[in-house]
Amino acid sequence: MTQIKSSANQATVLKWWSRLEGLPFGRRLFSLALGWVAPYSGTISAYVEEIRPGYARVSLRDKRRVRNHLHSLHAIALVNLGEIATGLAVLSTISANMRGIVLDIHAEYIKKSRGKITAIAEFQLPESLADNTPCQVEAILRDQSGETVTRVRATWLIGNETT
Fold this sequence. Notes:
This protein is α+β, with helices and mostly antiparallel strands.
């Protein structure tokens, strides 16, 4: 279960993104910092292309270390990419006194993944959000030709931060 600490909330994510994304190598620096904050997620070296409230676009280059024996991207690397995208979409939306925890994650593999893969996730907070509300977020992963290769559906438990 992945828990996102309050230090990685909407204000923090969007603040750092807005500070870095326009600088030379700023997106790369943000992506590296994300991998440092969430070490396991950093293992795939995902590249954050865009974040705005409720939206994230993250990509993964096809490298040997994320491939399987079939010379395509490994299924778990794709799930990791989808989780990163859904997490950033959630984090860019929730307030400073909230947290998100992944409860469940599913992947639907549609075709072999080769080349650069881009994940896009969108999230909107429900109007009536009670503490510990499960919210499903979907990331669509597409190859360079725009074809959907994988769908990742993550259920995030959104609630108030506990100290």
